[in-house]
Amino acid sequence: MIRYTLSCDQGHAFEGWFSSSDDFDGQMERKLVSCPMCNSTSVAKQLMAPSVATARKKEATRALVMDQAQKETVAKIRELVKTVRENAEDVGDRFPEEARKIHYGETDERGLIGKATVEEAVALLEEGIAIAPLPVLPDDVN
Questions:
Q1: Which Pfam family is an annotated match for this chain, by its short name (predicted)?
Q2: In angstroms, rounded to a whole number, what is the distance separating the alpha carbons of residues 120 and 131?
Q3: What is the C-alpha separation between 101 and 117, in angstroms, rounded?
Q4: Residue 138 and residue 74 in contact, taking contact as beta carbons nearer than 8 Å
Q5: Radius of gyration for the chain, computed over Cα atoms and rounded to the nearest angstrom
Q6: CA angle 57, 63, 69 (to 5 degrees)
Q7: pLDDT values of the chain reduced to their tens digit, one per residue, 142 residues
Q8: What is the three-state SS of the chain?
Q9: Would you kindly state where each structural domain of the chain is located, as residue ranges?
Q10: Long-range pairs for 131-134: beta carbons < 8 A, 24 or more residues apart
Q11: Dihedral, CA atoms, 135, 137, 141, 142, nearest 10 degrees?
Q12: Ramachandran region of residue 128, left (φ > 0), alpha (ψ -120 to 50) or beta?
């Protein structure tokens, strides 16, 4: 795996992990690499120092392994997310619209899950509509 430090045309810095340099180039050509903050696909690699394995880095890597308490916490979060998903209606991209209808009393109150852009989520919060993202857990993306 290769880790690149990236930035978008809006100046947001973030990291991306790729299986190879060719994988990065291919994803860039297909516009699959985007800024997690603003969704811009105008992304560039930044200058990075080479990674050198040291005893200190090996210790830090060991620290990334979850202990039993952390595993239990992740399991509880996973169970909570499962319960939310089982008891909510998935409205997909209609989430902002449906959340507003409930908030303004245009439809019955019910649990919702769905998708919203960062801008849509901010607008909902500014309107006083209580929303929260569901956490994405390590095993969900690996």
A1: DUF1178
A2: 11
A3: 18
A4: yes
A5: 20
A6: 175
A7: 788 899 999 999 999 998 888 989 999 999 999 999 999 999 999 876 666 666 666 665 555 677 788 888 888 999 999 999 999 999 999 999 999 999 999 999 999 999 999 999 999 999 999 999 988 776 665 4
A8: CEEEEEEECCCCEEEEEECCHHHHHHHHHCCCCCCCCCCCCCEEECCCCCCCCCHHHHHHHHHHCCCHHHHHHHHHHHHHHHHHHHCCEECHHHHHHHHHHHHCCCCCCCCEECCCCHHHHHHHHHCCCCCCCCCCCHHHHC
A9: 2-45, 66-136
A10: 131/99, 134/81, 134/84, 134/85
A11: 170
A12: left
Both tokens of residue 106?
């245009």
Tokens coding 5: 């430090």
Tokens of 48: 């990075």
User: Tokens 């603003």 map to which residue?
Assistant: 38
